[in-house]
Amino acid sequence: MANLRILFAVFILSLTACSSVNDDIDIMSDVDPKVDFIGYDTFAWMGSAVVAFDEQGQWEPPGFDADKEVKFYIDRELRAREMTEDSYNPDMLVTYVAGVDMDNIEEIDAKGSTLPSLSNVPKAALVIVFFDAQTGQPIWYGAAEGEVKEEQSVMDTKERLDYAVSKIMDEFPK
């Protein structure tokens, strides 16, 4: 359980988003091994899930509502697992957070040199977390991390978000 909290905190700190070619998106997840998911059939949204504001419009196309899209894809994936939304007596609470680190610096191979160099490679992440509604304890999280694809179309952004949520939810133990 401590491992789950540590990983969740790490992903919150390295927030991110998504793009058109999906091969740069890495998926990871963790589960509380003591939890039996058989009894989890209903869910409710916990607080306000959010995609971090993109002040400079570098990854989110103008007029595109990433919050709404991510919630739609998560809802779709949960319903495909025959789970239903129940705001009054849910088994699980669901939330997500996403954001962008435009200042991410990575070591890259420099052409014509045996020494690596540093380069700005903006990163984005999406973290989905499920909590037990009775205890409030996190029981599962999944995350996607990838490079920021700047100035992409709405369709490309939707494709990357759909891909990220689908792949994250493929890891869900249900």
Estimate what percentage of residues fall within beta strands. Answer: 25-35%
Low-pLDDT runs of 5+ residues are 1-20
Q: Can you summarize the main beta sheet?
A: 7 strands, mixed
Average pLDDT number: 77
Helical run tally: 3
N- to C-terminal separation?
A: 19 Å
What would you report as the Rg, rounded to the nearest angstrom?
17 Å
Report on the architecture of this protein.
- The chain has 174 residues and is an alpha/beta fold.
- Helix content is 25%, strand content 31%.
- It has helices at residues 2-13, 66-80, 154-170; strands at 26-31, 42-45, 50-51, 84-85, 92-101, 105-109, 116-120, 123-132, 138-147.
- The strands form 2 sheets. Strands 1, 2, 3, 4, 5, 8 and 9 form a 7-stranded mixed β-sheet that branches.
- Helix 2 (66-80) runs parallel beside helix 3 (154-170).
- The two termini are 19 Å apart.
- Residues 1-20 have low confidence and may be disordered.
Task: Lay out the secondary structure.
Elements: H1 2-13, E1 26-31, E2 42-45, E3 50-51, H2 66-80, E4 84-85, E5 92-101, E6 105-109, E7 116-120, E8 123-132, E9 138-147, H3 154-170
Parallel strand pairs: 2-4, 2-5, 3-5
Antiparallel strand pairs: 1-9, 5-8, 6-7, 8-9
